[in-house]
């Protein structure tokens, strides 16, 4: 099980120092890119990813919550993203978009909003490295985990077994030390957590507590 702290809840005026706090304990750095169209919030672009890349070697997990992601894949790839995840809902030609990400030598992920069915991924699962299940409606940190998504994670996990595929399952939104075990038990390989980590008084210690909570 891997932990990907989301910098959405970090202090953007002190981003370098905040990421340093979790650098040694995190497995990936989750970077939320929002365009004010696909989601009602605006965050960061490739220049920030590029700036951070100079200071950190941990894998950058870039979650694109933007319309027309094809237009920006090259820039994010060149900025130092390791995994680029697009939303199924934002891609008219999802297969082409996934191939484009892979064409830059990056891992390709696809994400589903809470109300979007797993069925929509039926013909792309074999092509992706990761599926990101949103457990809140994307746009903001600090929202409540939508409990009915546990079933969706379980179903995806079963589907992966049935189809004998090896994509990773990442889960994002509303995860904390109290519900993380259930999320992992349902089938998550990668846990994203923003507010639970960066709003805590000791982010590195909180990551350790996440790992302990899973082992309990
Ligand atoms: C929400 C983002 C998440 C967010 C999670 O749209 O995709 O990555 O940062 O934040 P928490 O963990 O606070 O729900
Ligand atoms: Zn995210």
Automatic annotation (TrEMBL):
It comes from the Bacteria. It catalyses: D-ribulose 5-phosphate = D-xylulose 5-phosphate. It is an enzyme of class 5 (isomerase). Keywords: Carbohydrate metabolism, Cobalt, Isomerase, Manganese, Metal-binding, Zinc. GO terms for molecular function: D-ribulose-phosphate 3-epimerase activity; metal ion binding. The active site is at residues 32, 172. Pfam families: Ribul_P_3_epim. GO terms for cellular component: cytoplasm. GO terms for biological process: pentose catabolic process; pentose-phosphate shunt. InterPro entries: Aldolase_TIM, Ribul_P_3_epim, Ribul_P_3_epim-like, RibuloseP-bd_barrel. Pathway: Carbohydrate degradation. Its EC number is 5.1.3.1. A divalent metal cation binds at residues 30, 32, 63, 172. PROSITE patterns: RIBUL_P_3_EPIMER_1, RIBUL_P_3_EPIMER_2. Substrate binds at residues 6, 63, 139-142, 172-174, 194-195. Catalyzes the reversible epimerization of D-ribulose 5-phosphate to D-xylulose 5-phosphate. HAMAP family: RPE. This is Ribulose-phosphate 3-epimerase.
């Amino acid at each position: 099980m891997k932990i990907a702290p989301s910098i959405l809840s970090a202090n953007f005026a002190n981003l370098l120092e905040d990421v340093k706090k979790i650098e040694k304990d995190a497995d990936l750095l989750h970077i939320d890119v929002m365009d004010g169209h696909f989601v009602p919030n605006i965050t960061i672009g490739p220049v920030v990813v590029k700036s951070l890349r100079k200071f950190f070697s941990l894998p950058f997990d870039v979650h694109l919550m933007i319309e027309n992601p094809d237009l920006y894949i090259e820039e994010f790839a060149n900025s130092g993203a390791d995994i680029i995840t697009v939303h199924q809902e934002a891609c008219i030609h999802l297969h082409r978009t996934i191939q484009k990400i892979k064409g830059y030598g990056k891992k390709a992920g696809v994400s589903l909003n809470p109300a979007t069915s797993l069925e929509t991924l039926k013909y792309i699962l074999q092509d992706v490295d990761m599926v990101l299940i949103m457990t809140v409606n994307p746009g903001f940190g600090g929202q409540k985990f939508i409990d009915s998504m546990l079933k969706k994670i379980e179903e995806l996990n079963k589907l992966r077994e049935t189809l004998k595929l090896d994509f990773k399952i990442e889960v994002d939104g509303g995860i904390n030390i109290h519900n993380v075990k259930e999320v992992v038990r349902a089938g998550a390989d990668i846990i994203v957590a923003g507010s639970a980590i960066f709003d805590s008084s000791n982010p590195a210690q909180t990551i350790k507590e996440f790992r302990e909570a899973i082992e309990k």
